Amino acid sequence: MAPSVELNSVVGRDTILPREMTVEDIDRLVGLFVQAALNAQAAGADGVEIHGAHGYLLQQFMSPYTNKRTDEYGGSMENRCRFIVRILEGIREVVEPDFVVGARINGNDFVEGGNDQDACVEIAKYLEPYVDYFNVSCGVYASAATMIEPCYSPEGWRSGFVKAIKSQVSVPVIAVNTVKHPQFAEQLLEEGVSDFVGMSRMHIADPYLVQKTMAGREDLIRKCLGCMNCNKSVVAGRMLHCALNPVAGHEVTFGDDKLVKNGNGRKVAIVGGGPAGMQAALLMKKRGFEPVIFEASGTLGGSAILASKAPCKHMAQEFVDTQIAEMKEYGIEVHLNTPGTVARIQTLEPYCVVVACGGNQIIPKVPGADRDNVYYIEDVLLGKVQFAGKKIAVIGGGHVGLEVAHYLCADNQVTVVEMQKEVGTSIYRTAKYKLLSLLQENGVEILTQHALAGVGEGTVELKQLPGGETVSVDADIVVMALGNRPDKAYEDKLAAAFDKVIVVGDATKAGTMADATKAAYEKCFYI
Fold first, then answer.
1. How far, in Å, CA of 513 to CA of 229, rounded?
2. What is the mean pLDDT of the chain?
3. How far, in Å, CA of 109 to CA of 98, rounded?
């Protein structure tokens, strides 16, 4: 059901044609909303918040984008607000006087034909007599990247329309604003942007956010990446899953209160100091073991360091910094520039070995792959080479390949080459469509169903799939972004030398940071 028979065509979803609600439908739902508030009061809640944002039913009535009715529930702003006003009035009539009734509303729909900032301010003014506070957000599902924004929206970007509403109403205003840092939240309050700061995904990433802030330990807060993995998991019908907090959505099974603390000071060798390795070390330390990290490079962070170099991905570095702070806080022994050789690990006489050293980059076996104009993602993202005014072919259209293209496209003409029918298959659609729009704005060309056949002087040879016809594309520079594969030979050596060996992260299968931290936590929870 919906206010009107309007196609709800959202990118990446099936097109849905709803039934227009009758007045009887509206009357019934008003009653159900009121009863739900009464139920909440009876259950001991201090108040309720009516959701009139994000393209859900009440917001659909309030927005001319979805409301084309000609009766008393359509047309003017007052008519479009009639449904939610009836609900708010009905709740206030039956609950106790001190029961809090708020409303979540949009500050901007960000769709053509919807409510812009000025219209949302008028709606707030009209609804103010019926609420104790507003919770201001924005966007609908057709503008989803503004509603639950991925990493490409800067901290505090919503401040303008939030402040516009706050300046016109006298009730308190809560605002979600992509806040990652407690000091930034304080800044929003000091600047009068809002009266309260909402931080939903931050509390998923770190449920101890408030306690750590009060203790002055902001260095230990795991700050949301904006990776959208939480939304991705829920929309897919699975339990909530956070890339930074493996316990989220699994609190019945996991958590510090459920750890089997049987380490008794026994040594555990952790090979690799990336997110998976540090997550494993932290958990094993909490279980009473003495983890020792062997990291071959000169710094902790692993592949997250690379990820953090792409535009808008700086929060990956902040996660690494937080994990490093955790290693120091728990006194975890770390050896940098120290490969985890069998002989070195044997000196520990470890209870078990956790392999979290990532994989080896895939090098294609094609003519010209060893030419001087061929580079790999580490060369580019770590700044070992820099390019400007070049035609660059990025081979591989996965998450990393698209991020590398984003990194290069401001100063170069970039073409992404992908064998599959679609690029970025591992990226959640909201983040993916936003990234693809940014690439398009910067003139990046994407060639799907093309495989690398060879690298020549100023060109790459591509094989069209299916069919096999070869085409040439101009390319001064070629960047390989084909991912990694596990080092099975190394794993076999460890398996032959030690009784207990577990493999996590990219060392077992190339994946996301969410995959890495989840595997590290779950496998180390039970071993």
1. 10
2. 95
3. 32
